[in-house]
Amino acid sequence: MNSIYKGQLSETPFDISLLSNEHLPALQQLQTIVYNALPDQTVLQPLTQEEFENILGGNGLMIGAFVANELIAFRALLEPDIDDEHLGRDCGVAESELSRVLYQEISNVSPNYRGFGLQKTLARVIMEQVDVGRFDYICATVKPFNIPSLKDKFSQGMMVAALKLKYEGKLRYVFFKKTAEENLPFSEACHVLMSDTAEQQRLLKEGWLGVQLFMVNDDWLVEYKRT
């Protein structure tokens, strides 16, 4: 196993490696464990065997964290087909540049190894593997109120560019980030209840971007900014 990162989970050492088709059974087994442990299974859209094979076959990138020889977490990037649902269009990417978009796909961490920041570590490591000569944009979707995934995206500097129905009518935030870091000169900010879909959609149509979330009096709010 060729390690691309070594770390510690308290006293337990772990390695992160690039994954291939030989890891498919372990990936499917871990995904099932993670899915079955979720209190709300609607927050995770499991990958099918075909989707795993598509990424592992060269249409993206998948990395895994191992303790000894046990797969305890994985994270994926997908080079998507340019179809009607392409997230780049939702984020204002020009048609001619859609081939330069990568998707952040599924991220799973074993219930036995939560609380160590593995998801954040995997995000940093996998983004370091991106060929910035080929890809300019990273996109992803997250279900509203999937707080761990929303925090994960915001912690990477990703921003909400749209809130709309995707994947046969499922409401999703559409996140994006440029692979080349940029500091946008924001001049205005406001806070909106995450439950207020219509107001968020109005702001997004007017050019605001979602940049962070926080809780006030048991309510989740999204901070929006614009230049």
Notes on the structure:
This protein is an alpha+beta fold and 227 residues long. It has two domains: 3-182, Gcn5-related N-acetyltransferase (GNAT) (Aminopeptidase, 3-Layer(aba) Sandwich); 184-227, no CATH class. Helices cover 24% and strands 37% of the residues. It has six helices and eleven strands. It has helices at 24-37, 49-56, 87-90, 118-128, 147-155, 197-205, and strands spanning 3-9, 12-18, 60-67, 70-78, 101-109, 137-142, 159-166, 170-178, 188-193, 209-216, 219-226. The chain has an eight-stranded mixed β-sheet with strand order 1-2-3-4-5-6-8-7. The chain has a three-stranded antiparallel β-sheet with strand order 9-11-10. The longest helix is centred in the N-terminal third of the chain and has 14 residues, at 24-37. 31% of the residues are buried. The mean pLDDT is 94. This is GNAT family N-acetyltransferase. InterPro entries: Acyl_CoA_acyltransferase.
